[in-house]
Each structure stands twice: as structure tokens, then as C-alpha cells.
Amino acid sequence: MLTSYAAHFDTPAGYLDFARFGPPSRDAVAATARAMEESARADHRTVDGLMRAEAAARDTAARLAGTDRRHTVLLPNASTGLFHAALGIKEGVVLVPRTDFPANHYPWRRTAGLGRATPRWLDPAPGRGVTPHLVRAALTDDVAAVSISAVDFRTGFRADLEALREAIGPDRLLIVDAIQAFGVAEMAWDAADVVVAGGQKWLRAGWATGFATLSDRALESLEPVLTGWTGVEDVGLFDGTEHPPAPDAQRWSITNLSPVTAAAFAAALDLVERHTVAAIEAAIAARITELTEVIEEHSGRILSPTDPTRRAGILSFTMPDHDPSLVAKALQAEGVTPTVRTDSLRFSPHASTPPEACDRVAAALSSLRN
């Protein structure tokens, strides 16, 4: 456990569901409360003052992604960014894993119906995720982009972004949904042309927070179809004419975001930056190793990659001869919160997860023998 990081949270010891939702820190909660309190006492300075949180969050997200504010825009969620990217491709084929979370499916299904980009579905081997070999085998001249998850939501398989960039070449777009990785896994974000992430999971910022980064290639080639009034030049000039899209990533802005959620996002990102992604990742990896040992000691079957370099903070498993719903009840009785699927269970600890969580899991799995 990363003690200095964990001190900012009140999350129960047995909470192991960060891949679904990450309970925010006291810092984020306090920032939200302050913003709401300030908005309740509004005067001529309030709105401009509250809006400063968006710039702070944007700058920190950019630094964590290895880029700058010109290439970064805040968004209310990851799906908004994926729809921006999908609608921005005028034509061609986009390679998309069939096993990805549906947020990376529907944008491409919709664009196909509009006569724009058409999805071609990839079928990764079970537990493997998207590999350069799989992508390379599917490449044809009409492929314009590849859209993948940085980390597979089912198994925690970690994509090799640098190798995928090399496989697709310099002229195709690499679009990455980073929601299961950003802030807790050091990855080559600069290999991607579009990186989108929501802040409600591993970043622990609460709902309605997120961002996207765009490479120069993406800024040049993606049509800004969804650009709104806050994504254009001369935003404050209300002259009744259409303004050109902003020259930077701000062109993906549709309207003003909530300064309250921006304040929470800024606080959450600051916490990650101060404690470092590397330290957070190492703490999560240590807990994943311990949980793996507990599951295997109780005859569980691990579905996630066994190679630590090929997985992130997700650990999927089954308990043979035990229905996942019954295993979940045993875990919940010990104060453990897993993700429950019809065919498996998933643990996703964070850097604040204490060793006690492993003891609780062991007690729950032991009870299945009774």
C-alpha cells in the first residue's frame, strides 16, 4: 500500500472494484464542496473564478499524458471523445476489437450508418487482447484507423501501444480508450493519436470528468464535426456568424463544462501527479500479486494474463464448481466488493488497498469449502 497516497481516502479496506468506479479522495470531495459553496454566494467574480479549475485540470492531464494544453481538452466522459474521433473520420475502415467495452463499439456502429468510417471487428484470442500481430494481419489499404482499449476491461490485458503504432505505420490513426489505465499504468501515450479517458474509475475524480489528447496528425486529419460554440475561435464574440474551429484540441469542446466537476478533476489529477503514476502502479501490482496467490491457494482459476508486464490492475478469475453469484455473496459477507459477471469475477485494487483486503478474500474463499 502506498501509505502517503492512501491517507487521502476513506474507502473501505475490502473495496476491489476500481475498474468499475473509484471512490474519490477527500481532496476531490472538498474541492467539489468549495466550488458549490462559492457558486451559492455568486457575485461578479464567481463564474470567472470557478472556471479556472478547468485550466488547472487540463494542464495536469496534459502533463500526465506527456503532452501540452494545446493538444488536450477536457470532456465530460470518454464516450464523448470516442464519438468525436469516430465522426471525424470521413471514410475508410476502422479496426475495433469485438471484445472491447461497448463504449468503443457504438461510435463506430453509428458512423457506419452515416456512410463515414466502417468498423471491421477484430477477434482477440481469449486472455490475449489486441496484439500487433492481430492488427497487422487485418490491415488493408482502406484501413484508416485502429481504435482499442489501452487495458482490456475483462482481463486487464495491457496493449503495447508502441508496437501497435509500428504495426499500423505513420499514416493511420491510433485511437485509445485509456479509462482502465490512465493514472495507474505508465504507457506510451505519445504513440497514440487520440487518447480519451473518463475520471470516474482509476483517477477517482467522480462522474462527469474526463479528457482527450490529440496528436498533430489527429488535429490535421479529423474533421471537427461536433465542435460547439466553446470550440471555436473568438469564443466571446457573439456576432451571429459561424466561427472557424479552434486550431488546437479545444475544437472538441461542445459547451462549457461544470466548474464543479472540473474542480474535482483538478484535485484528483493533482493527487496522481504528486504521488506519481510509477509509485501507484507498483503498489497496485504488488496487491494483484498477493490476490493472485490467494485465489490460486483456494483452487481458483486466473483468467487474466500471468505475465505482470502484460497486465494492469485487473484480475479476473473463476472458482470452479462455484457459481460467480454465490462466490460474490461470500466475498460481500467478508466486506469485499468485486465486480460480478455471469461467468467470472473481477478484482481491481488500487494503491490505497491495504493488505487486509487479501485476508478478507482468503476468509471468503475458505468459506466456500464449508
Protein architecture, described:
With 370 residues, the protein is an alpha/beta fold. Helix 8 links the parallel strand 4 and strand 5. The protein has helices spanning 3-6, 26-40, 46-50, 52-64, 78-88, 106-113, 132-138, 161-168, 216-221, 259-275, 277-297, 324-333, 356-367, and strands spanning 72-74, 93-97, 118-122, 143-149, 173-177, 194-198, 210-214, 301-302, 315-318, 339-340, 345-347. The chain has a seven-stranded mixed β-sheet, sandwiched between helices. A four-stranded antiparallel β-sheet has the order 8-9-11-10. It starts with a helix and ends with a helix. Helices cover 37% and strands 12% of the residues. The protein is globular, with a radius of gyration of 21 Å. The protein contains 13 helices and eleven strands.
Map the helices and strands.
Blueprint: H1 3-6, H2 26-40, H3 46-50, H4 52-64, E1 72-74, H5 78-88, E2 93-97, H6 106-113, E3 118-122, H7 132-138, E4 143-149, H8 161-168, E5 173-177, E6 194-198, E7 210-214, H9 216-221, H10 259-275, H11 277-297, E8 301-302, E9 315-318, H12 324-333, E10 339-340, E11 345-347, H13 356-367
Parallel strand pairs: 2-3, 2-4, 4-5, 5-6
Antiparallel strand pairs: 1-7, 6-7, 8-9, 9-11, 10-11
Helix pairs in contact: 2-10, 4-10, 5-6, 7-8, 11-13, 12-13
The Cα radius of gyration reads 21 Å
Order of helices and strands: HHHHEHEHEHEHEEEHHHEEHEEH
Structural class: alpha/beta
Uncertain stretches: none
Label the overall shape.
globular
- CA distance, first residue to last residue: 31 Å
Average of the residue pLDDT scores = 96
Count of strand segments = 11
The number of helical runs is 13
Tell me the strand order in the biggest sheet.
1-7-6-5-4-2-3
Largest sheet: 7 strands, mixed
What is the beta-strand fraction? 5-15%
- Helical content band: 25-40%
